[in-house]
UniProtKB/TrEMBL annotation:
Domain of life: Bacteria
InterPro entries: Kinase-like_dom_sf (IPR011009), Tyr_kinase_AS (IPR008266)
Entry's Gene Ontology molecular function annotations: protein kinase activity
Name of the protein in its database record: Protein kinase domain-containing protein
């Protein structure tokens, strides 16, 4: 089995750890397991997060063989492009068998956050909710001003650290991103994956309009339309899936 990797400058002493990661991964503490798996550990006094990506199917492996970058590599490279907005990237590594990608990992420094934006959005009584959302809107605006479009900008991917009511935000799950100048629709549509209720959507839209010097009513209407349309599509897919499952059961 062969491998390819890259290490951040100054972390050359992590090379042996990186090469052994495939064999040692199961020894570390899991904090999330779904399509991908995320673990935490301490190495050389540094708290790390290691994300293992799902093994690609044959079609995706063909794409990787033809030059498409793996999710681990894209995460690592994107982290440098958005360094102010995401936890510090340390390394990535890919393991190959007969030229086909089998396992891939992205390693970053652990961001010691207090909550995600999901907890704020799902609790009307969350302490300082309006102030947090105001700061979150500014964080999102700064991302957009830098030409950064996070394609998985969901509530669980936005981490928040409370430092005496000074709120610091970081985004994770960064393998799917676009870098371009963003128009108003692209900016406001980016919030739709947060699954906002109308009250929070209106608040964020008005704050964003102030930052972007745009009409508040237009921003509010646009954001609500994007939010409602995404919810309709997602809910339709859920109902359709349930119907199809029911037919199979019968």
């Amino acid at each position: 089995m062969s491998f390819a990797f890259d290490l951040r400058d100054g972390f050359e002493n992590f090379k042996d750890f990186l090469i052994a990661l495939k064999e040692d991964f199961n020894n570390y503490k899991t904090i999330y397991k779904g399509r991908n798996e995320v673990k935490i550990l301490n190495k050389n006094t540094i708290n790390l997060v290691v994300k293992s990506f799902k093994k690609p199917n044959l079609f995706k492996n063909l794409l990787y063989f033809l030059g498409k970058k793996s999710k681990a590599k894209k995460s690592y490279q994107n982290a440098f492009k958005i360094a102010d907005f995401t936890p510090k990237a340390i390394a990535y590594i890919e393991f190959y068998d007969n030229f086909f990608l089998k396992n891939s990992y992205f390693i970053s420094e652990k961001f010691e956050y207090d909550f995600t934006i999901r907890e704020v959005l799902t609790n009307d009584k969350f302490k300082n909710k309006d102030e947090i959302l105001k700061n979150f809107t500014k964080f999102s605006f700064d991302l957009h001003e830098k030409g950064i479009l996070h394609l998985d900008y969901s509530a669980g991917n936005i981490l928040v650290k409370d430092e005496n009511e000074n709120y610091i935000f970081k985004v994770v799950d960064i393998n799917r991103m676009k870098f371009k100048e963003l128009n108003l629709n692209e900016r406001l549509k980016n919030f739709s994956m947060l699954w906002l209720d109308d009250k929070d959507a209106k608040f964020i839209a008005k704050e964003y309009a102030k930052l972007y010097d745009k009409d508040e009513d237009i921003c509010t209407k646009t954001m609500l339309n994007f939010s409602h349309n995404l919810k309709k599509r997602k809910n339709f897919k859920k109902r359709l899936k349930a119907i199809l499952k029911g037919e199979k059961c019968r």
